[in-house]
Amino acid sequence: MVLLTETERSILLEKNLINDPTQYSITTQPSLVTIHDYGNITLAEAGLVIFKYTLRKATGNDVDKCYARFEIGGIPIHGAEIHILNTDFVFGGLCWLAAGTYDVLVKGCTPTGVTLYLKQFQIGFVKFNDSVGHALAAYSSGIAKTVPARATPAGPLKQAVYAVMVEAYTAGAVTYFEDAGETLTNGVGITVDGVRVNWSTKQHDVDGKQAAHGKCFYPASTAESHTITIVKENASTTVNITVCACPWILGGPVHNPVAFSFSQGSTVYMTLEPLFVDESKFAGVGKVRGVSYGTATDYYGSSSATGIIEYSYTFETVNQDMGFACSGVGGCITNVGVDMR
To answer: Which domain holds residue 182?
Structure first.
């Protein structure tokens, strides 16, 4: 037996750029104002930045809405709306940035007599093998990216997740995010290679407060160019966008990062970890059947949990062509290995 492993997430190169648990607040601010300016971050190289923060609404009732908008370098990238009273809401995301220095701040607005709290803000630089990106900017045209072919200890790369984050705003109007088949007033949709796809998560700008935000995590083949295009029902709607394509970022749909290539009887290993949020992550060998009875019969072996998952499977009677499926928005794959028989 020979054990071959590879680290896909360069943890030793990661940087926790801002980690501020302090609670900041605004009260009775009907227009967007700065809740807190966290100062500048500096990137020595282009790459992926991840962030997480918590919002809480106090006073008022469960109808009054509060809004927050996260900006990097003066460009909005994430919007959030909350209305439930005295509950912590944790938001997170990712952003590809060019090398340089960027101011980081969060703005917000609240109805009369309502307080909005911002706390537990973090932002950091992360680095993965095989990642390519489109730096945060105003959207102008289709974005084409290719994750190059490469061999790993477990086999060649097969699929990458295209992680797209979008912030949209229509002056004086409400902005909506459209899924495939929808046509909405001031709608914003997304296509991959010309085909309309659904948003993984979406936050409509229900009151025109510039809090419209969408994430799309879409698996696509490596070694081929794939084009992300934004579709706007109103040409006046402004859109800010960032894209990262990487086999080791997890999304909502399951994807197969590697086409296994090793001798039968070998054991494959994968480490799954939180990236920008710690939600449940899934790893398994198998796929959804033509008639599905659930995970227990679709997959020969699987694991689903928060935190860190150390997953392994030995290919004895099951052929390695079955592949490895994984998912979990906000998570990633840190290590890949195979114990060759």
So the answer is: 132-246
